[in-house]
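Appendix B. Chain record.
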Amino acid sequence: MELSIDHLTKDFLSVRALDDVTFRIRAGEIHALMGENGAGKSTLIKIVTGVYKPDSGRLLLDGQPVEFSSPRDALAAAIGAVHQERNLIPRFSVGENIVLEHLPTRNGMVDYAEVHRQARAYLDLLDRAIDTRAEVATLSVAQMQLVEIAKALSLKAKLLLLDEPTASISGHEAAALFDVLGRLRAQGVAIVFVSHKLEEVLSLCDRVTILRDGKIAAADEPIASVSRGRLVSLMIGRDERVADMGVRNPDTSQTVLELRAVSTSFGHHDADLSLHKGEILGLYGLVGAGRTELARSILGYGRITAGEIRVNGQRARIRSMNEALESYRIGYVSEDRKGEGLLLAYPVKENIAITIWRRIAGILGLITPRAEAKAAGPFVGRLAIRTPSIDAAVSTLSGGNQQKVSIAKWLAAQTDILIVDEPTVGIDVKTKVEIHELIAGIARDGVSVLLITSDMAEMVTLADRILVLHDFRIVGEVANDHRYEGTSAAVMNFIHAVDPAAAGA
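Structure tokens predicted for this chain:
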């Protein structure tokens, strides 16, 4: 199947999201679609999949004009997609979600044995550890992303659109996905691959189209003819800037957070961890290793079944996020910024001030918009949050600026310890540099950071030390010299030692 995108234009009120976009996606090729947050990539995918209608222009499948009134129309035309926004039913099982569009039946009833058999076949291409009978609501964000991909594969689409499919998964799971995509390409499937991870694009894709401010900056270029530097300059309109990480000197004599032989209701066993003042301590592991679950156990989301947590040398019992903040000055930037980290329909000022409402409340506990604006304003400037105003809804901001708001609310709360989970998921290369500098600056100011990321390069860039998790156990520690090859190899060696099957990561 070949898709031609012919002079597409799309407006949202006074904002032109796509402006005369034209390019072609060929059968048997992986076509990268790139651009900064807000460049129009997701809007384009939603037009191709029938979520939006263009204001002008047209789509052609194998040379014939088509119009989609709904996503089901696109599915009927053999077009499948993984969108940035999760499209899973939380209370359904993994298996039910994967085969939802083609549920197998027997005698007029759903054949659940066949549901899980079919789902298992697609999920095994990506991750054998996820139980098809598990309720989706119990999965981590990364596991949900793998389920989304398996669901798309189950559609057996002739055109497959993947919007940031590797955003939350580690290199091991991404490698499994790339192997599947390579096989689909060989079978003649046309694939659109959206990613901010330049190395993935350069190694996987055949062609690239780049959007900037809704317009075509480059179309249908063979990937072999495009350097990394040119990709970046086409996306952002100038050369890539190297992050200025500054000089940091963590105080290793002062331990601010300590786990002693901690076991949790999530399944961790005998976890030992120490975080020093001004340090960035990394937690790395493959999907399902228990990184996020360990962090959430510290915050009271999971029960501590053995061992103890100490904050500033004193034994701590934390039962909620509110208690973590109010009693122990611990903040948490969630990996799920849209679902947990932000109130998308509310203004920027309220999202930033929410952690300090008690502090800025006036007489009778009333919180005025003026007080919120006064509290939030300095952080909008300090973090260079690009927003029309502090009264704008967070949903109108790009992903990178939403993440800055998510971080800003904890800076406003003056936390001493900040847990940061997947800080740059779905964020463009320019904003990624800004987030890295922001995290390094926070640590330089004395805040202690517990960093979780599936992006090995990001981990090597930021962390002072890296704890390696596998199967809910801490299996090693790596002192980070910020040299990618050596540090990444040392991290993966710990994983390979306990899981030889991960050797392809």
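Further analysis of this model is presented in Appendix C.
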